[in-house]
Task: structure prediction
Amino acid sequence: MKHQFIKVDQTTIHYVEGGPTQYTADSTTETIVFLHGFPEYWATWHAQLDFFSKKYRVIAPDLPGYNLSDKPQEQSFYEVPNLIQFIAKLIQQLAPNQKVILVAHDWGGAIAWPLTAFFPHLVERLVILNAAHPSLFTREMIRNPEQRQKSEYIHELIAENAVVKLSKNGFKYLNEEVFTGMKEGVLSQQQRRKYLKAWSQPGAIAGMLQYYKAMPQLAPSQSRTSQSKGPIIAPQDMKIPNIRITCPTLILWGEQDQAFVKQNIEGIQEYVPNVEVIRYLTASHWLQHELPDEVNKEIEIFLQLNENDNSC
Result:
């Protein structure tokens, strides 16, 4: 894997790249772009990068605000419409002459869903790991008290003391609260040290929290002690976005997800008709860590079955 940097507008993005051959603009080797979530960085995809780099050109960026990428301070930068535009520009610069295969988890998925819908000329196939479709997530926030309860943690992440809270005691909160549900022993001590290094980058904690502060719709906290300030809106006033995707899409879903209820994938065919859903009954939100071989296998089968279908 080669570590590289690229400037998009005025923001520098760090990414790793690998593949079977040296990439050129006229290369026929397909490109897979991996988008990580919170509180991760490019190496959350290490097992997928190792596996797919034998056949594909693979790219995994640090999202803006994370690890070695720039960390814009303006909250407006992290609003979803701007993030979509920004990542679309990143993809266009990295793969100017071909559509890409987009693989995304968590916040990476929150960007990938609408990006694929609004920039279909950039994405050939889409793979989502435990990232709720925006239309279905909003539906569940409106009608499902369990989803609102599962999203309660966000109020801690947008509170005024959040940076201090997440940083103290060696990032104890991130290790013990956010990574909750991940099976014991899944992350090696070396991997945990690398996460600590990524979180320790100047401005990284503040940067990654910007995504939550700028998220479009969040139900009021059910806690009387919460003093969070952010995009609070009553469930009955939420608007369900119309995010529709036509290209071949694979959803891999760990059902023991602490952030999303299982109902987030019910009715997905209404918005994504060309979709396959594979559920893992005992896996959590951290699917690519817990079941890397199974994830790689299912993505490989999906790509082989749909390698001539670019109907986004």
The two ends are 29 Å apart (CA to CA). The longest strand covers residues 275-284. Residues 2-305 form a domain with the Rossmann fold fold (CATH 3.40.50.1820).
